[in-house]
Amino acid sequence: MVEKADLFKNGKRLDGRGPKDLRPLKITAGVLDRAQGSCLIEWGRNKVLAAVYGPHEVLPKHLADPTKAIINARYVMAPFSGQEEHGRSGPNRRSIEISKVAKHVFENAVLVDQFPKTMIDVHMEVLQSDGGTRVAGITAGAVALADAGIPLRDMPVGISCGKIGEHMVVDLDKYEDNLGDSDMPFVILPRTGEILLSQMDGMLSREDISQAFDMIFEGAQKVRNMQIEALKTSYERMATHAAEGGQNQ
Amino acid sequence: MILEQIKQGFIRELAEKAQREDGRGLLDYRTISVQKGFAPNAEGSALAQIGKSKVLSGIKFDVLAPFADRPTEGVVMVNAEFSPVAHPEFRAGPPGENSIELARVVDRGIRSAKVVNVDNMLVSEGKVQGIFIDLYILDHDGNLIDTAALAAMAALKDAKVPKFEDGKIVRGSNAGSLPLKDIVVSTSFEKIGKTIMVDATDAEEIASSGRLSLSTANDSLICSSQKSGSAGFSKDEYMQMVEWAMQKRKDLLAKI
């Protein structure tokens, strides 16, 4: 049983990280066959799969916008993904809210006006959860969009920040999220510094919030580099495959 | 709705000059009013109005099974109803994403600041007090989050805790006011072009590209944040809104 006092001792967190350290992160693009773009993100003990379909015809049709593409974002947790009991399948109030704010992120980052009267689906499936699944999902969703060849203003990067006692820390795991004092998931565009998603619970002063921004901007740069690497690796794999005369999988 | 769509350009042009359709400054709220005890059968209630927006909050106590990992803690639940009386685009039916978002944002502010102390709310073995906070949107002219948060807080302040006997609630009884730790208020900002303004009307929200709602628990602490809409905010803009939220807090606080 983890207690709150265990979360931060002698400058180290429960899993040995310092305040600004991210958990181990692995991003793989192009992991699915049928989806136009896909990505598996393994971030700490989180595993989130993202898939992109589209641009395609808008369904239901009356939602079609003659000036831009509609984003259909869907974040959902698998019923077996948590440490606790079997969850309910499908969307709940939490996942509907997260899907909504994720949609706003992609509406901003995707050049939606290039695809009028279409819909772009971004599905984010949490297969294994360990705190920070929405930011992991959106980070993966961004890679899946790029993997699908959909133009983006920049790669959105999700990252969380929070407070444990008096300490601000970045990239909270499940214990820190549950037992800590505050949790702030963010999505930013690292190139422009724009904040596309900000949610928060807990109590934070203006100084805490300012420090949180400095920590997430620094951490986001690392995540962004791994997103780009994942896409390069995926394209290299495709190029090698093509050079060997292989059919597209 | 067509009218509001057509007005977008006009509202954006005004915003560029730091002006608004109704002549307000960018950081001015509309008239705020609160009527407590509006629905006296509820243990607490309040009708909050910001400009023409109206939200009625009702509070009901009940006896519930606790969460498995918190066997003695009371349960607070916030639900929002976007009633079709409030707006031509609201339809009856299961809650949509805007209704769920609003309820959860109001909930997070109240929960983070521990406004209601839920410790030791055991009624009898396996039963705890449940507090239902319902938010009825009755008239929608923008800024529903701030109006709803105001209604919820005023209704909590109005609430009389009933007596609990033999594991049951005694309806109509009064064991005193509900103790509240802090008064939480929400301040929502909309971004129209590059201009940020507080307390937007429905027409301004249609012209807006994004919103940031910040809840304050006192003059120096933010207790919830929610960004909505496609707009991006810079760190400087965000920190400016944090300051403004702390300043505007007193305008709302005076009405609760």
Q: What share of the residues of chain B does DSSP label as strand, in percent?
A: 25-35%
Helix/sheet category of chain A: alpha+beta
Coarse shape of chain B: elongated
Unreliable segments of chain A (pLDDT under 50, ≥5 consecutive)? none
Number of beta-strand segments of chain A = 11
Number of domains of chain A: 1
Please tell me the total number of domains of chain B.
1
**N-to-C order of helices and strands of chain A:** EEEEEEHEHEEHEEH
Q: Tell me which protein chains meet in the greatest interface and how many residues each side has.
A: A-B, 32 and 35 residues
N-end to C-end Cα span of chain A = 47 Å
User: What is the gyration radius of chain A calculated from CA atoms?
Assistant: 18 Å
By DSSP (H or I, 4+ residues per run), the number of helices of chain B equals 5
- The percentage helix of chain A is 25-40%
> Approximately what portion of the residues of chain A adopt beta-strand conformation?
25-35%
